[in-house]
Specification:
By secondary structure, the chain is an alpha+beta fold. The chain contains three helices and four strands; from the N terminus they run ααββαββ. The chain has a two-stranded antiparallel sheet with strand order 1-2. A two-stranded antiparallel ribbon has the order 3-4.
Length: about 100
Amino acid sequence: MGELLVATQTPHDVISEFFLLLNLCWSSNFCKFDEKFFDFPFEVGIPIGLTLGSLISEVFMDRFEKELFSSPSGLLGRVIYWHRYVDVYIIKGSSGT
């Protein structure tokens, strides 16, 4: 995400402040299930219910798609059907044989 902000010529101090706020929002990654609270390690990903979660995942998924579709691999030539809903993909492909 930092690369995207730099590419749009966002000032360095704004980028730094953005990441400070993002880390603050990201720090409490927990959920409640069966009347018990569970705390997840930082590495697990975007906290459940994080307001910025949908934005962060959209940026990631958009970049993932752009890199995949611009890849020189022959994999995409075998795709028959491609559908994305938020962060879920349904892909049908041919075996290529």
